[in-house]
Amino acid sequence: MATTSTAAPPRKWWQVPRPLQKVFDTFPLLAYDVNALPARAQSATSGDLPTLYVFSTEEEALLGAPSFNPSCLKWQAFLKLAGVKFQILPSTNHASPTGALPFILPARSSPTDVPSPIPSSKLHDYALKYGTSNPPEVSALRLDAYQALLDVPIRNAWLQALYRDPQYIDLLDRFYITPASSSYWVRGALRHQLRRAAETEIRKTGPGGAASTALSLLVDEHSVYRAAVKALEALATLLSESKTGWFFGAETPTIFDASVFAYTHLMLKYMSDAEGEVEGEKDFILASRKLGIMVRSAGSGELEQHHRRLFELLWLADSNAELLDTKARGNKLLQVQLQA
């Protein structure tokens, strides 16, 4: 007598296996909300001033000094250009609700108010909405063309110098390694991780600015710096054509001026010899691997002059008027942080 068996229906190729499906049924997948801000962030936020969270030290943040991170410094400068009054606090990417700095926490309207953080992608609109002055707009076509010089060759040179060049290892430790941990082993692992991440970012675009077709194991630092020198020369040439001293001939600084300043300030402050030294020929400039020298040597010194003007406009012009207020707010913030 023949026996018949009911064949199981064919399983579709995308179907989850039954044992795994039982696990999913028992522990369904959940989508979690973004990380909440630390309690310290809410308590330290002023009731009348927004708080910009950036890479900085406690001391420099209390003084409102420029951040040592290019992305943070760009938005710090642009908010000041737009006339937004704010205070800054030091933070890290891990403490950011969006996973990256900078972000701004609006002022609280009441002691129980919990404002939502605003990420860097929305800081431009925030500055135009809440600032007392509107920086001039730049044609998107022109802006994109020259922004690429900052986003690729100049950024690559910054990554190469800070994260991979042995002469700046102390600077890297001071900015990102030492504040992160007191453990020798953790610091070593973090240093290696940041170095590899910088290499990956440089290889993505290639030293010349175009996408690299072959990801070599080693980064050609000379090609990286050579591309940066050409980019800085192009920016200096563009600036020399302006009758106002600001990019694109704008009457007042634009967001692009802030973007350029974010790199030139850090390069001149941290990666340069003493002012007044003779830089020499282009071969010497490349061999020195000092980005500040590259900035000074670009064109006829237009970028250094541009940096000086913007720094004086944003930080020196109001330093005396706000000195007492800054110290008062700094003491108040310090007390709150110690109590948190």
Automatic annotation (TrEMBL):
GO terms for cellular component: SAM complex. GO terms for biological process: mitochondrion organization. InterPro entries: Metaxin_GST, Mito_Protein_Transport_Metaxin, Thioredoxin-like_fold. Coiled coil: none annotated. Residues 70-167 form the Thioredoxin-like fold domain. CDD domains: GST_C_Metaxin, GST_N_Metaxin1_like. Residues 229-272 form the Metaxin glutathione S-transferase domain. It comes from the Eukaryota. This is Mitochondrial outer membrane protein. The lineage of its organism: Eukaryota, Fungi, Dikarya, Ascomycota, Pezizomycotina.
